[in-house]
Design brief:
By secondary structure, the protein is of the alpha/beta class. The chain is about 45% helix and about 15% strand. The chain has a domain of about 240 residues: Rossmann fold (3-Layer(aba) Sandwich), CATH 3.40.50. The model has no long low-confidence stretch (mean pLDDT about 95). The structure holds nicotinamide-adenine-dinucleotide (NAD) and 2'deoxy-thymidine-5'-diphospho-alpha-D-glucose. The site of nicotinamide-adenine-dinucleotide has 30 residues, from α1, α5 and β5.
Length: about 350
């Protein structure tokens, strides 16, 4: 088992990164320090970790910095004597990559390259560089079959092409320079603290407010939904136990069409929240809109490698995971309001500008 003293988590103010930091402090035996290296883009919200900051004080540190800045990356690794990098920071939304791909190239490819270079300069002091990647690098499945660790890469969107490129760089640094690396490619995450541009939180909040629920095309595209806490446990398992140079597919064994996901969310919101003024069920808010260009039909992961090697498995079912997530968005008004209104930006200016 690897043990780490000082982990650099990039993108730790985002959805999965913040859940990962909480997981490391509260659900593992980790007793070191985490430096959260985050540029606080529209998707980064330090409020997602204010409880962790209060509880774990000096062992948790937010560094407001950008992975596109090579010298900031190098300086952070040296100053905090980093022995492991867990790399989440990315532009993560496919629709944004279609409209404006530039940042995806700069952050996802150049930013990853900067991190790899700085990690290499740490020499033997660096125990592991872990790259958090996606199943979208494998392209699209037809109605049958699964992605595995040996599926050839075939990305379609600017987002997935940039993630594929960063995966290749990580492998190249392992194979060429002997950098100790691991990669996870996982399916669609859902759960607390997800920015409401992604399907599930967008549908929950729009359904609550009685706004239209935009389903792309016929809603027949399939995604494999994984609860974020199960993903974080898979990452923790890999970084502590997997051999250098290995890659791991992580999925939810929970395939659903988008239409089915939206219908399920509507039913849960109807059950948990007061009825709409009109009295109509929330499913009546579904509006079919123009399809996403190049929309991948189906993603599904065969995660038997990580299940067989380490006994990792999903702890959430679709039913209790979706219920828990809707409940979280209903109960966490302050976080939701800050994200909806952009108010957390003021908070960032006040608390982090000078650091
Ligand atoms: P997110 O968009 O919620 O968060 C991204 C974080 O990265 C934010 O905190 C943002 O401020 C930070 N960031 C962006 N650009 C940066 C830069 N240049 N320098 C430093 N920080 C920067 O993303 P997420 O959904 O939490 O995804 C995290 C990682 O997991 C990404 O690499 C993504 O590709 C991967 N992934 C996500 C999913 C999913 O379903 N969300 C599935 C598979 C893989
Ligand atoms: O598969 C892993 C990927 O999952 C991650 O790498 C990405 O970072 C993450 O954003 C996610 O990508 P998707 O494009 O699959 O997620 P998104 O939530 O944007 O969309 C899920 C599905 O729902 C997709 O088929 C598009 C559809 N959709 C999405 C939105 C936002 C809609 O029908 N309506 C919407 O309003």
């Amino acid at each position: 088992m690897r043990r780490f003293k000082n982990i650099l988590v990039t993108g730790g103010a985002g959805f999965i990164g913040s859940n990962f930091i909480r997981h490391a402090f509260e659900r593992t035996d980790f007793d070191g320090r985490i430096v959260n290296f985050d540029a606080l883009t529209y998707a980064g919200n330090p409020r997602s970790l204010s409880d962790i900051e209060a509880k774990f004080g000096p062992r948790y540190r937010l560094l407001h910095a950008d992975i596109r800045d090579a010298s900031a990356v190098r300086e952070a690794m040296e100053r905090f004597e980093i022995d492991a990098v867990v790399h989440f920071a990315a532009e993560s939304h496919v629709d944004r990559s279609i409209v404006a791909p530039d940042d995806f190239v700069q952050t996802n490819i150049v930013g990853t390259f900067n991190l790899l270079q700085a990690a290499r300069e740490r020499g033997g002091a660096l125990a592991l560089f872990h790259h958090v990647s996606t199943d979208e690098v494998f392209g699209s499945l037809g109605p049958t079959g699964f992605f595995t660790e040996t599926t050839p890469y075939a990305p379609h969107s600017p987002y997935s092409a940039s993630k594929a490129s960063s995966d290749h760089l990580v492998r190249a640094f392992h194979d060429t320079y002997g950098l100790p690396t691991t990669i996870t490619n996982c399916s669609n995450n859902y759960g607390p603290y997800q920015f409401p541009e992604k399907l599930i939180p967008l549908m929950i909040l729009n359904a609550l407010e009685g706004r239209p629920l935009p389903v792309y095309g016929a809603g027949l595209n399939v995604r494999d939904w994984l609860h974020v806490e199960d993903h974080c446990e898979a990452i923790w398992t890999v970084i502590t136990r997997a051999e250098s140079g290995s890659t791991w597919c992580v999925g939810g064994r929970n395939e659903r069409t988008n239409a089915d996901v939206v219908r399920t969310i509507c039913e849960i919101v109807d059950r948990m929240a007061p009825p709409l003024q009109s009295g109509a069920p929330r499913a009546s808010l579904v509006t079919h809109v123009a399809d996403r260009p190049g929309h991948d039909l189906r993603y599904a992961i065969d995660c038997s490698k990580i299940e067989n090697a380490f006994g990792w498995t999903q702890s959430y079912t679709a039913e209790n995971g979706f219920d828990q997530t809707v409940r979280w968005y209903l109960d966490n008004h302050a976080w939701v309001d800050s994200v909806r209104t952009g108010a957390y930006r003021d908070w960032i200016e006040k608390n982090y500008a000078a650091r």
